[in-house]
Amino acid sequence: MHEYSAHADQVYASAQSAAASSSVVASWRRCMTMHRLAPEEKRLPMRLTGQEFAAAMERSERLIAEASNELDRLFLTVGKAGCCLLLTDRDGIALERRGAVGDDKEFHDLGLWTGTIWTEASMGTNGIGTALADDRAVAIFRDQHFLCANIDLSCTTAPIRDHRGQLAGALDISTCRDDVNDVTLAILSQTVRDAALRIELNLFRSAFAGARFVMVPTDTASTSALLAVDRNDLVLGATKAARLALKLDDHRIAAGIPASDVLREQQGGVGEDLQEAERAALLRALSRADGNVSQAAMALGMSRSTLHRKMKRLNLH
User: Fold this and answer.
1) What are the residue ranges spanned by the domains of the chain?
2) In this structure, are residues 155 and 126 in contact, taking their beta carbons and an 8 Å threshold?
3) Are strands 235-238 and 226-229 parallel, antiparallel or unpaired?
4) CATH tag, 270-313
5) Whether residue 93 has pLDDT greater than 60
6) pTM of the predicted model over 0.85
7) Comparing C-alpha atoms, which of 186, 21, 59, 30 is closest to residue 123?
């Protein structure tokens, strides 16, 4: 009890100071001023009714489908170490859970269960709620939680974004083990960020099935910066990392912008563009015909002599 009292005193003192000294203290302040919470409160996350939970699951059907394999893979890595996994939607509703049966009671008592709402408004500073509020990956270690009841919990969470770069949900690893330290939490944090990124890429690829995907060069060499491009070289979609790198938004994408333009590839006039398009079409036909000019001409619907003339004009001999 003394530990709880000391934690509550620390939260009050830090949150009421003149300036927030960290993102955690900024979250504590939100919990007190915006959400009217008190650190000594005893509370569990709000829980949805069966009907409300079914509706939430339906709204996030694609997220759940694209995250399922990643959750299973991640649980194989951390599940035996006393960790619980939660996948939530953008409102902090726990949609999917992975945990060892032997740990179920402890996590259930804490509210780490499907159908619960892990927002800052519901549970104060916590991995899921704070990651969603700040729109970034966070790790909340023990007494960095707002509520005294959660100071035995350590969690690390990464947001998940949809094919338009908008917040779609969060992936969380939580543990109550008392031997967790900063190094362990750092490793778990990187693990959950990597898994969340793979889910994002799954969402992006499924949203643009059949498109060609182009990796965008970035200063950080990020593998998450992708463009979805159609057969006419028009950009269909872009991940958040690609949008930031290329200054793209929904309006520019909807207007129909060539990938070569946003990637600042060497461009010529309209005539040169047509010539390059013709060259590319002939090269594809010749490649598919293994260099057989007669077969390529037949596939293109032209005579062999016409194809030879075009090849000569375009320096393809």
Assistant:
1) 42-206, 209-262, 270-313
2) yes
3) antiparallel
4) 1.10.10
5) yes
6) no
7) 30
